[in-house]
Design brief:
Strand order of the largest sheet: 1-4-5-6
Strand content: 35-45%
Number of strands: 6
Structural class: mainly beta
Helix content: under 10%
Shape: elongated
Radius of gyration: 17 Å
């Protein structure tokens, strides 16, 4: 008796974001550019679209979302300090 392993390709349904969202596509190495600054995000999101939204009233602080899940917060002031 021989078992055959089936091959399935899983694809996510296209995600729709709000018209006023900033939508970015994650590049091959897990990088995005936010206000002309490179930001590293999880490489698992490579080629996926993510959304960047301002975090409340804090200037320069952004929440990053994949679908409806917030996975990261970026403070552009801290990114400037690292340069």
């Amino acid at each position: 008796m021989q078992l055959k392993v089936g091959r399935r390709q899983w694809q996510l349904s296209p995600v729709e974001y709000a018209a006023d969202d900033l939508v970015l596509t994650v590049d091959w190495n897990g990088w995005i550019k936010l206000h002309n600054r490179p930001i590293k995000v999880p490489i698992a999101l490579h080629r996926h679209r993510i959304v960047v939204r301002p975090h409340g009233q804090e200037d320069g602080v952004f929440d990053l979302f994949f679908c409806h899940h917030r996975f990261m917060q970026v403070d552009l002031h801290a990114v400037n300090d690292q340069d």
